[in-house]
Amino acid sequence: MVGGNGLTPDARSILSGGTAEGDNTLYLHDPWTLKRVRKIDIKWSWRSFAFAPDGKSLLVVERRTDDIHVLDLATGKSNIWRRQEPGMVGISQMLFSPDGSTVVLHHGRGVSLVETATKRKHWTTALHPTTPATMVFSHEGRLLLVGSAGAILVVDVATGKRLGSAWDRTLPPKSIHALAVTPDGLRLLSLGGQDDKILVWKLRAW
């Protein structure tokens, strides 16, 4: 893994990946001083990770197999959480729902929703193109918002059905870098474009 980072749910640490090719280590940093406080050695090459809502563990995708491991942050030990499934190859991003009951996986064919407790897949929705830069849930967890090629796609979490989209045709493909929902849940912020412009979108009553 080269790079990759994320803030722990309690905002007390930043988790980052190694910055050199072949460095599979995870590092915990103090968010204020950026001082490294701990490292976690992983024996296999990984592609992406996602924090569980309680912040005590995270899911990590093994690059070679696409198996998903659950890693205990306190001990550094990991176990297989879910084996690779045909049709879900190339998992590049994972995102837990606000209540932690489900996790969304982005892969080569689109996005899939998996139940956390049973590991059962509920649905898969194809995306074209299939290279979203970022994903975020609405605050109540009813909608999944996916940034993809200048568009923000709105997906119904219960069914996986695409409800609509918002376009900024001035953005080049693969140019939405980040999404965030405002604290009141009424607006969506998107970051993208070569000049990293921030756009504000109204979240309609889909």
What does this structure look like?
This protein has 206 residues and is an all-beta fold. Helix content is 0%, strand content 49%. It has no helices and 19 strands. A four-stranded antiparallel beta sheet has the order 1-2-3-4, with no helix packed on it. β10 and β11 form a beta hairpin. The radius of gyration is 17 Å and the shape is globular. The protein starts with a strand and ends with a strand. The mean pLDDT is 85.
Give the topology, please:
Blueprint: E1 5-7, E2 14-17, E3 26-29, E4 36-40, E5 46-51, E6 57-62, E7 68-72, E8 78-82, E9 93-96, E10 102-107, E11 110-115, E12 121-126, E13 134-137, E14 143-148, E15 151-156, E16 162-167, E17 176-181, E18 187-192, E19 197-202
Antiparallel strand pairs: 1-2, 2-3, 3-4, 5-6, 6-7, 7-8, 9-10, 10-11, 11-12, 13-14, 14-15, 15-16, 17-18, 18-19
Ranges with pLDDT <50 over ≥5 residues? none
Let me know the average pLDDT.
85
Element order: H for helix, E for strand: EEEEEEEEEEEEEEEEEEE
Give the count of helical stretches.
0
Helical amount among residues, as a percent range?
under 10%
The biggest beta sheet is recorded as: 4 strands, antiparallel
Q: Given the helix and strand composition, which structural class is it?
A: mainly beta
Identify the overall geometry. globular
Portion of residues in beta strands equals: over 45%
Q: How many strand units? A: 19
